[in-house]
Amino acid sequence: MHYQLTFPSRRIHAAVALPPSKSISNRVLIIHALAGGNCLPANLSDCDDTRVMVEALSRRRGEGEGVIDIMAAGTAMRFLTAYLSVTPGVHVITGTERMRQRPIRILVDALRELGAAIEYMENDGYPPLRITGKALAGQAISLKGDVSSQYISALLMIAPTLQEGLRLSLAGEIISRPYIDLTLQLMETFGVQAGWDSESSLSIRHQPYRSTPFTVESDWSAASYWYQLLALAQSGEVELRGLLPDSHQGDSRGAEIFSRLGVSTTFTDRGALLKKTGCCTARLDEDMTGVPDLAQTIAVTCALLNIPFSLRGLQTLKIKETDRMAALIAETAKLGYAIGERNNAELFWNGERIPPQEQPLIQTYEDHRMAMAFAPAAIRLPQLAIAEPQVVTKSYPAYWEDLKKAGAHIQTVH
Q1: Residues facing 205 on adjacent strands
Q2: What is the pLDDT of residue 321?
Q3: What does the alpha-carbon distance between residue 129 and residue 94 come to, in Å, rounded to a whole number?
Q4: Which partner from 51, 143, 254, 368 sits 20 to 30 angstroms from 22, CA to CA?
Q5: Phi, psi dihedral angles at 243 (to 5 degrees)
Q6: What is the dihedral angle through the alpha carbons of 8, 12, 16, 19, rounded to the nearest 10 degrees?
Q7: Cβ(194)–Cβ(156) below 8 Å
């Protein structure tokens, strides 16, 4: 099945209730469980990743031994691996075929250094895992700074439960500091003192979490697709409800990036008001360290606006839901753009065009962000279609319905 998209008007006017933040929801669920809270945080994301996290955590409370299938939820795999390591019982955690191909050795090795009992059940270095949860002593460990921030966040969130706490040193370039800072901020909200000792090390002593009422804010990653749609539109404005100007979400940086792609942001008491300005930079050279989830959106936007670009700091893209670099290059080629990559960490386009397909069908590779980053292109390419559109449920279940509210016509083709 695929969706055929058209926008009868290139003038966009919409008010959108964005989904709650997946990044915050999944972190706060782990922290809430470690705090022993009874009432779930309010306004949790309704996406696949968060729903499997809620189910997994509720099962751990009510059962001893069992299998947790987190499907394609990478965040859940990393966070739950750490959480289950300090949760008494024998736990098996597995996922989809793609999830069983995504490496987890770095996190497992770090947890084993702390005393965790984790076994690989099939291929060494990959899920599924058998975890025997127990109290861990804690100690000083070191990781490379360019690993996924989810490994680091997973360790940080369990750190207060370790009998001797945790001192974590990060060597080299730290590529996802905003996500680490988000984790620290949420830990502090739940009563834990946590922070940086220096530019490259963090210390967290043994201390209890405090159960705290909490409401999840709207998702800045989801907001990026509305910035993109407006950037590609002829004119218009979009109100995105629930966005906070002082958010700790790393992807809030998207507002500044899109200001150079023709979209302004004004904050109100209801959220953010986006307006098409049309004032675009001639070229975009951007270090995407800390905001890799914006890469697909920015690349597609720049290409369609005919803005050459270089997006650096993307070394984690190859181990996401798919190899996002390869997927992006393959699918933008269908639209007539020859995007290249360098050193497994940079995407670039120098303006080179190739013959486009007349009716491009964008493959989504079981990756929600491929679907959502290409769909706004239909406002300029009315023959565009998106394959397997249901993948958006991973982070933004109402995405297609919200696009319809903004004027999109969506036809289902089997």
Answers
A1: none
A2: 66
A3: 7
A4: 143
A5: -80, 140
A6: 80
A7: yes
231: Cβ contacts below 8 Å, ≥ 6 apart: 258, 261, 262, 263, 276, 301, 305
Count Cα atoms within 13 angstroms, Cβ side, for 385: 16
> Side chain identity at 81, as an amino acid letter?
T
> Is residue 293 annotated as part of the catalytic site, yes or no?
yes
Pairing between β-strand 309-312 and β-strand 284-287 as defined by DSSP bridges: parallel
Q: Give the Cα separation of 255 and 269 in Å (integer).
A: 17
- The answer, yes or no, to whether residue 312 has pLDDT greater than 60, is yes
Query: Any idea which architecture 2-19+219-413 has in CATH?
Result: Alpha-beta prism (3.65)
Query: What mean pLDDT is predicted for residues 146-155?
Result: 92
Which residues make up the CATH 3.65.10.10 domain(s) of the chain? Answer: 2-19+219-413, 22-204
Q: CA geometry: angle at 304 spanning 306 and 354, to 5°?
A: 80
Q: Is-contact 22 219, C-beta < 8 A?
A: yes
149 neighbors 176 (Cβ within 8 angstroms):
yes
pLDDT score recorded for residue 63: 47
Q: Say how far apart CA 279 and CA 299 lie, in whole Å.
A: 18
Is residue 128 reached through a cis peptide bond, with omega within 30 degrees of 0 on the bond before it?
Answer: yes
Identify the active-site residue in 48, 49, 219, 293. 293
Q: Given 1.20.1250.20, 3.40.50.300, 3.65.10.10, 3.20.20.70, which CATH number is that of 22-204?
A: 3.65.10.10
